[in-house]
Amino acid sequence: MLVHSHQGGQYCANAYRALLDQHDCLRPPGRRDECLDNAQAKSLWSRLKTEELGSREWPVFRDLTDAQHSVATYFDYYNHERRHSALAY
């Protein structure tokens, strides 16, 4: 599993890093304070929150299966159907 963070203090704590290591989680290399390093990923998550999750009532998901299905369906739409400004629509 890949765990992305903004390298804030809470994500650099020894206990947190040990927990990730214990569960074989990878921390991607990233430069501190470089907001453009993950611009595409940040855009995807922002659109998911706005377009998919923003329209749902609380609780957002019925269970883990519902969450996984919702995110997978949105990613499929985002990658194959959604128009992107970076691609001149």
Automatic annotation (TrEMBL):
InterPro entries: Integrase_cat-core, RNaseH-like_sf, Transposase_IS3/IS150/IS904. One of its GO terms (biological process) is DNA integration. Transmembrane segments: none annotated. It holds the Pfam family rve_3. Residues 32-89 form the Integrase catalytic domain. It comes from the Bacteria. This is Transposase. It comes from Hymenobacter polaris.
